[in-house]
Amino acid sequence: MVDIADGWHWREEAWGAALQQDALGAVAAHVMTSRSLNFRAQAERDYAALARTFGRSAGEVVRVTQVHGRAIVHVRLGEDVPNGMEADAIISTDPSRVISVRVADCVPVLIADRHQRVVAAVHAGWKGTCAAIAEATVDAIAILGVPPDDLIAAIGPSIGPCCYQVDGRVRHSFLAMTPDATAWMVEDGVARWKLDLWQANFDQLVRAGMRADAIHVARLCTADHLDRCFSHRAEGPATGRMVAAIRLGAPQRRQMVAGGAGSAGASFAGGPGGVT
Ligand SMILES: [Zn+2]
Questions:
Q1: Is residue 111 assigned to a domain?
Q2: Measured by CB atoms within 10 angstroms of the end CB, which terminus of the chain is less buried, N or C?
């Protein structure tokens, strides 16, 4: 069994192991995928499988071209979002669509409002973290009228402070952003540091106004758990990708039928839960 922080659990979908955070799951249907889907070799098939988990079609899964920046896309009810827009965070107020980011060491952050007005998905590698993309996302949600202390966040599997060695260029980039960054790095040999992207993103969410006890970190290092996760560092750039996806509205769990084969994997097959 893969060691993971309290409040997180693996469940079995039709396509394989999926990770969920319990507090987030109480207010928004979401999933973080495992090695069971790789979103590369047969990406369309994999997006279709992911979509079915939410009771939607692949065309209702919003994807962006991630560029390690600070741009945020807002998905609104009835408005088209062209696939492949360049952004590293997506905010949605549309319960009919699933929003998603792809990772393989970079940090996936899923965010939902307790009152089910908004959800967000964030991709934060070192550059995105250095650009404070998670903080920018909470700021953008606040502009929509949802206060940060109404938000719950899940920081998913990604390369941990145990394995993420960086050089002076990365260190200087962070220190130029904020003196807080000294707390995110420890020396690791000559001109090398270990960087804690989990803590960096956690601190940014708190700085943006979120309650610390509403931020849940999986503390699952991708490079150390290749049985469940893909890792760019450990396996090279050709490895697969994991997807973190979320949809506005509380999950409506379909009753499992004893002996029935058709119900597996349809965890969120209901409607948007009365959210408008
Ligand atoms: Zn590690």
A1: yes
A2: N
Kindly list the distances between the CA atom of residue 13 and the CA atoms of 7, 10, 21, 130, 151, in Å, as whole numbers in the listed order: 19, 9, 15, 34, 27
User: 140: domain CATH number?
Assistant: 3.60.140.10
Tokens, residue 92: 């949605």
Instruction: Give a yes or no: residue 269 inside a domain.
Output: no
Count structural domains, the chain. 1
CA of 173 to the centre of ligand 1 (A): 22
pLDDT (tens, 9 = 90+) of the chain, 276 residues, equals 567 899 999 999 999 999 999 999 999 999 999 999 999 999 999 999 999 999 999 999 999 999 999 999 999 999 998 888 999 999 999 999 999 999 999 999 999 999 999 999 999 999 999 999 999 999 999 999 999 999 999 999 999 999 999 999 999 999 999 999 999 999 999 999 999 999 999 999 999 999 999 999 999 999 999 999 999 999 999 999 999 999 998 776 543 333 333 333 444 544 443 333
Q: What is the whole-number distance in angstroms between the Cα of residue 73 and the centre of ligand 1? A: 31
Instruction: Give the predicted TM-score (pTM) of the model.
Output: 0.91
Report every protein residue that has its C-beta within 5 angstroms of ion ligand 1.
160, 162-163, 221, 223-224
Residue type for 195, please? L
Strands (E), 87-241: 89-92, 98-103, 107-113, 119-124, 151-155, 165-167, 185-187, 192-195, 215-217
Cα of 166 vs centre of ligand 1, distance in Å, is: 13
Residue 165 within any structural domain of the chain: no
Q: What are phi and psi of 169, to 5 degrees?
A: -65, -45
